[in-house]
Design brief:
The complex is a heterotrimer.
Chain A (H helix, E strand, L loop, with lengths): L4 H4 L17 H11 L6 E6 L3 H6 E2 L2 E2 L4 E3 L6 H17 L7 E8 H6 L2 H9 L5 E6 L39 H6 L5 E5 L6 H12 L4 E6 L3 H4 L6 H10 L6 E4 L2 E4 L9 H5 L12 H24 L3
Parallel strand pairs in A: 1-4, 1-5, 5-6, 6-8, 7-8
Antiparallel strand pairs in A: 2-3, 7-9, 9-10
Helix pairs in contact in A: 2-8, 4-6
Chain B lengths: L2 E5 L1 H12 L3 E3 L8 H11 L6 E3 L4 H14 L3 E5 L1 H6 L1 H9 L5 E6 L13 H5 L6 E4 L3 H16 L7 E6 L8 E5 L2 H8 L16 E2 L8 H30 L6 E4 L6 E5 L3 H14 L4 E6 L1 E3 L3 H7 L5 E6 L10 H13 L5 E6 L8 H17 L6 E4 L4
Parallel strand pairs in B: 2-3, 2-4, 4-5, 5-7, 6-7, 11-12, 11-14, 14-15, 15-16
Antiparallel strand pairs in B: 1-8, 6-13, 10-12
Helix pairs in contact in B: 1-2, 1-7, 3-5, 7-9, 10-13, 11-12
Chain C lengths: L41 E5 L10 H4 L5 E4 L2 E5 L9 H5 L5 E5 L3
The chains are: A alpha/beta, B alpha/beta, C mainly beta.
Chain lengths: ~300, ~400, ~100
Amino acid sequence: MAYNLKESTKKPDRLTGGHRMCAGCGAPVVVRTILRAVKEEDHAVVGAATGCLEVSTCLYPFTAWKDSFIHSAFENAGATVSGAEAAYTAMKKTGKVEGDTKFIAFGGDGGTYDIGLQSLSGAMERGHDMVYVCYDNEAYMNTGIQRSSSTPKYADTTTSPAGTVIPGKPQFKKDLTEVMVAHHLPYVAQSAPMTNFKDLYDKAEKAIYTKGPAFLNVLAPCPRGWRYDTPMLMDIIKLAVDSCVWPLYEVVEGEYKLTYRPKIKVPVADYLKPQGRFRHLFKSDVGAEMLKDLQKEVDRRWENLLKLCGE
Amino acid sequence: MAIRDKLSGNEAVAVAMRQIDPDVVAAFPITPSTEVPQYFSQFVADGKVHTEFVPVESEHSAMSACIGSESAGGRTMTATSANGLALMWEMLYIAASSRLPIVLSVVNRALSGPINIHNDHSDSMGARDSGWIQLYCEDNQEAYDNVIQAIRIGEHPDVNLPVMVCFDGFITSHSVENIELLEDDKVKNFVGSYHPKEYLLKRETPIAVGPLDLQPHYFEHKRSQAEGMTNSKKVILDVAKEFQKMAGREYGFFEEYRMDDAEVGIIVLNSTAGTAKTVVDDLRDKGVKAGLIKIRVFRPFPFEELGKAVSGLKALAVMDKSDGFAAMGGPVFNDVRSAMFDYAKDVPCINYIYGLGGRDVRADDIAKVYADLGKIAETGKVKSTFNYLGVRE
Amino acid sequence: MSDKKRRFVFTPESTWEEMPEGGLILDAGNADDFLTGDWRNIKPIWHEDKCKQCMLCYPVCPDSSIEVEDGKMTGIDYDHCKGCGVCAHACKFGAIDMVDEAE
């Protein structure tokens, strides 16, 4: 069924209000759209790694999840949900459960790119019928904005501070989406909640309803950690995508497809300027050189992606 | 009609698992427990079970997947040893606090370092505070019987706790001995089906498992968890009674071997008990009033029962196949001594740490222990409370 | 405030025996009972006359606080709205304004 934002609002929200995410947080925006792609008559079991999303949505005695939810630890959302999925398969055989249940694991970039990478890789490789969604806010936000391998180069975080000798994180951002493409999964996609949310919704629907393992990497800006003016959430996302820092694409059975091409490719500096974590790049000539460095890498990765997508 | 067979401990446990036919087995190989998932995956490949076998990529993921599976409502089992158990350490605590009756076979092997693949009890002893019920097994028969009983013990609504069944690596896991197996339908009827009250896949009432639990709530949840462990004492005995009716073999918290009028005794776990029993028999032939107690249930610790059981002795030695490095003897010794303070204050009790890293323990080593106990019984004096048996010094 | 029947309601007097075992939460979605509306310093005001019912504010709200019924916006859930301002900023038609909470 073709995406229609208005029609999609008729589905009941599977994530309630009353959770403790920061005002303006990108993560629940991502989660609401992912869950909206689940058919109304289908049951879902949601798992989450320890992190902002988990501690804020499931804080005793409250849960914001209308579906069954499980959290066990930080580095194992992939394994935990794969176990639930295995139980489902077994219990269907004995008639103990009926109907369709969808298995969705959520992890931040901390619990996915870093400590949770092994567990994610194992779960995906084993072919469980589940979706793993990384809500990428580019640092270990829940514990106070420490760097992750997803943190962009030169970003100021509490363990990669912009100091007088070292100007923020020395390494470029790891490309986890490409790591997951190399697992040869039925469906891998990179997305963001943008404009009318069609990109994210369609990809969520494909991921959930494609049989086998699927991986979604979704940008989820953090107003606290990125230090931009909170109401600008949607603008920041649009800049991330239009500057080609966070391209929107999908890989279906190994075939690359670009799902959004900016009409005008925006300079990376325009995306970074509103964010306090990059403020030091705009203060000096050294900073200007760093901006050039970043632009070069963005352009290189973008050109590579265009080639892969046959553009 | 029981089935007579010759099986190694690992194969016996795998057979028990086949007969139980759990929903999920998520396991990662580690010597000497590897054969358990190996034998089991052959059963899966031949369609002899309905189980979903999840070949996870690490032991941490094994216990994580078991937690996911059991929370979802699936009966779940696995096996590991030593550093595999250590790698899943944080998840053991989470399985217990989430009240999930997972059954884990721990094939006892020394914890690194240095790395050693042979038998001692440092792995399961290291997990004694994790909230798991711990059953120890002398041989392949006990391993088989305990795995079957573990399902009923853990899943009892008054308990809802995970259970680890511990038996000695290589000595029990790989030695082929005679065994009496039960018929498939007998085991099936004994364990029944798993009917958790709440589970993730129960559509009518979705739940949340594993919330963030702050200061106002954590303590109450842990108190509730402690109650489950306390309740398990009665359940363990009730299940053993039912098992005896079906299988004819008797189980309790511990086995008392020739303890009735014993004056000198030892407390020992797992396969060494077998060796020690022959020493006791020899001593009895010579007129020495020797006995031994083999602990089966280490967690929950049979505080009152064990304390009372040793109160008639003139000298007791506790054998520990692991060192707690507390500078005050091994873990079993310390738990026993604590119980004796209430029930057997006057009995001199000493400790021997032995067999670390698979160091062989022989009948004459154990005979030496009884000789030491004999001197203590005679003189009433203890020369040395903390001892090592079998180390070159 | 939700009037849903809850299987267990925690109070500061709840004893360990009363609380569901294992830390389980038996009432899925009961966070609805927790009112985050008092986090606000500023609040959104919806001008129904300017609203084009485009629904662009609906998915951007982190707190599910844009109320819709049958494909039409009906208001704002002030019990849960944290006043982040993302909806007002996302609205192309000036139908949502952020004003001081005191007003």
